[in-house]
Amino acid sequence: MTAPPLRRTRARDVMSTRVVSVSPETEFDEVARVLARNAVRAVPVVEGTRLLGVVSEADLLRIAEFGDPPGRDPVRRWREPRRPTTARTLMSTAVVTVRPEASVAEAARRMRQGGVSWLAVTEFRGAAEHVVGVLGRTDILSVFLRDDAELRAEVIEGVVRPILGDAADAVSVDVDRGVVTLCGTVSRRGQASRIGALVGRLEGVVAVHDQLVSEEWIEPIAGPLY
């Protein structure tokens, strides 16, 4: 029996194509306004759609540590460090990105490893990297907002039935707010382990209560019962 393909959400499926960005010559104050107006913590710096870098709240705060601009005293102006004033001079070029075809699991891993709350979704056109969307934590978490009935059907038709075939009816599947409970008896120990492992990897599964029992685990009782 051929199992139906399991749902695999990609970055392109949940990303926002409305990209809030700034140009490299955008002034400090305007970058701050863009962040505040759009309630975002960072924006990509682009030329057209070509990715150059990213400016975050942290970058702006670092510049704020310079304090007030130097006065008119030419000696003081010479001694003061030059204050970055545009996105080009503010930005970091170490941008955490993900490709449109990447899974949401890979995107979540990149977010965690990079310590960021959003990713630029990019693709290469020639040697240049271009922004095609942005992906936030809320976008990734949206894969867990699945209907219990839909998820139960995928567990049965995508995992249990392909492994057990006609014996699939011996397994009961209940789903409550993403928590899957598996009950029943299967013939081989490996089947029980495989079902539990695969169900735990399905998108939208919060937890698995695996109560499957294998006939290989049931020891016969020797001798008479009297």
Would you kindly provide a written description of the structure presented here, covering whatever features stand out?
It holds the Pfam family CBS. Keywords: CBS domain. Residues 147-216 form the BON domain. This is BON domain-containing protein. Residues 15-70, 91-150 form the CBS domain. It is a single chain. The chain is of the alpha/beta class and 226 residues long. The protein has 2 domains: 11-143, CBS-domain, CATH 3.10.580; 146-217, 2-Layer Sandwich (GMP Synthetase, Chain A, domain 3), CATH 3.30.300.130. The protein is 35% helix and 24% strand. The chain contains 9 helices and 8 strands. The strands form 3 sheets. A 3-stranded mixed sheet has the order 3-4-5. A 3-stranded mixed sheet has the order 6-7-8, covered by helices on one side. A two-stranded antiparallel sheet has the order 1-2. A hairpin with a 2-residue loop joins β1 and β2. α8 packs antiparallel against α9 (189-200). The longest helix is centred in the C-terminal third of the chain and has 17 residues, at 148-164. It is elongated. The protein starts with 10 loop residues before the first helix and ends in a 12-residue tail after the last strand. 23% of the residues are buried.
Q: Count the helices. How many?
A: 9
End-to-end separation in angstroms reads 45 Å
The biggest beta sheet, please?
3 strands, mixed
Care to count the β-strands?
8
Strand content: 15-25%
Coarse structural class? alpha/beta
How are helices and strands ordered from N to C?
HHEEHHHEHEEHHEEHE
Strand order of the largest sheet: 3-4-5
Into how many domains do the coordinates divide?
2
Q: Helix share of residues?
A: 25-40%
Query: What number is the mean pLDDT?
Result: 87
Q: Specify the CATH homologous superfamily of the largest domain.
A: CBS-domain
Organism: Pseudonocardia halophobica
Keywords: CBS domain
Domain CBS: 15-70, 91-150
Protein name: BON domain-containing protein
